[in-house]
Amino acid sequence: MRTDPHVLHVRSSAGLYGAEHVILGLVPALQRLGIGSTLLCLDNQYLQQQPLHAKARALGLPAKRIECRGRFDLATIRALRSALAKQPDALLHVHDYKSALNAWVARGRGRVPIVATAHGQFSSTARLHLYHRLELSLMRRFERVCMVSAEMRPLLAAAGVRDGAIRLIENGIDTDRFSPDVAPFARAEFGIAEDAVVFGSAMRLTAQKNVSGLIDAFAQIAPEVAQAVLVIAGEGELRDAANARAAALGIADRVHLIGAREEMQRFYAMLDVFVLPSLYEGLPLALLEAMSMARRVVATRTGQVADVLDGLPTELVAAGDPAALAGAMRRALSNRPDTARLRERVQQRYSLATMADAYAGLYREVWRQHERAAA
């Protein structure tokens, strides 16, 4: 009997966001534990470049592009079946609805075990709602389903995923990379004064992340703190709307949308206060990264966030309330919490090593069951 599987991670990606960074960190961490992994990147037909595959290759990770011209493509099925044929000890780990569908069809009657991670079922459109319902339906057929937030359990149970198949495995980050010792970006690069009080957030500029609510909250405290500025790292469909909102509130010169950044650790190091204004979440990496950098934290109570921050000196408020968010930002300025405790929490519970250990144990559990069944 083979003692460990080779994990084929399957992901259809629209860019480099939280789930992508989880996978990019998980693959080498598993390798250090003796579990080989290969990343199979399903092409996104709407993108000229395939950023997840490009980033994986730049990091030296084993990765392969899989042709995919739509939700269901026979060429994709053939490519996945070819990958399975070349890897007889394969275990499939799927990370989204398209990957789940194609992997389920590709495994056929061979009964290759499948593990899925629900990174967050957030349906912002009717089409996405349909896709997520499909993904949930498929999860009933998989050997294990991992959730990044305990709040997902009722959703999975309602979809018919058996309780014994569900596991909570929280996201992890590289605490060596996200360290308080990192040199910050030069504030002058963004036209920010050295003595400015910098509030900041890292997000996709989408309705879920609530960029407009953050700008509204900042507008309430901007007149009170003349040197305060707001800096937001990230791209998304609401970039123009965010700029327009800041202009309408008369604070355009104090709100800086700096786009996507490679060296995010240097971004966090530039901040005085990190703000997570999301309306709904699973377990956001940006929060863990800011905590690991020992930043002061203001966050909304959504997903796994309250559990992550439980007992820590942070400001936690209800989601969707700009006035409450502004009040928390004010308090964060006046308080001087022991932010070293935030980093300690991440090191103890949300490191890459902790996450990889949990997944490695899960893979081995599934693989032992698979091998016994095949014997």
Give the overall form. elongated
Q: How many separate domains?
A: 2
The assigned structural class equals alpha/beta
What is the CA-atom radius of gyration, in angstroms?
A: 21 Å
- Segments where pLDDT lies below 50 for 5+ residues? none
Q: What is the first-to-last residue Cα distance?
A: 9 Å
Specify the biggest β-sheet. 7 strands, parallel
| H/I helix tally | 14
Within the CATH hierarchy, at the fold level, what is the topology of the largest domain? Answer: Rossmann fold
Strand order of the largest sheet: 3-2-1-4-5-6-7
CATH class identity of the largest domain = Alpha Beta
What is the strand tally? 13
Helicity range of the residues?
Answer: 40-55%
**Average of the residue pLDDT scores:** 94
| CATH-scheme architecture of the largest domain | 3-Layer(aba) Sandwich
Residue share in β-strands: 15-25%
* CATH fourth-tier homologous superfamily of the largest domain: Glycogen Phosphorylase B
